[in-house]
Amino acid sequence: MSEGADFNLDLIQMVQRARMLHDETAAPSAVTAVYWIEAKRRDGDTPGPTSTAGEWRVKLRVAEVDAVWERVKALTAAGGLGYKSKVSTRPAAGQAGPEERTLCARTYDAGDEADVARVGAALRALGLAEMEYIADKS
Questions:
Q1: How far is residue 113's CA from residue 111's CA, in Å, rounded to a whole number?
Q2: Which of 2-16, 27-41, 62-76 has the lowest mean pLDDT?
Q3: DSSP string spanning 55-111?
Q4: pTM as predicted
Q5: 87 contacts 29 by C-beta, under 8 angstroms
Q6: Residue 87 and residue 97: Cα distance in Å, rounded?
Q7: Facing residues of 54 across strands?
């Protein structure tokens, strides 16, 4: 934070809570106002992300994104995935076509190989096969 900066943290938290309420009911195929919608783990007794957090990325098609997101969102909230998951509401730069979407399941630390493997196995159990793991660079 720069010297003299005056941030209203209460306002920032209020906006974040409102965004999460919106994201709880949003369908990725129907949202256009924001690029991502998110789900967070409800269990407050979990580690937060480290500087070496990472994510499993899954490419989806618009025709399947809503159904897959409902399952991933529920599993994330229940603690079955990482600390947060998100899904794109439109294609990212470099994607093959307008029908592609990206789902990300964030892990708290790429160095925790057992947790990374656990989250990957949970995604595969949902029928998601074409995935890649990306570790954040510190």
A1: 6
A2: 2-16
A3: EEEEEEEHHHHHHHHHHHHHHHHTTSS-SEEEEESSPPTT-SSTTEEEEEEEES-TT
A4: 0.81
A5: no
A6: 16
A7: 107, 135
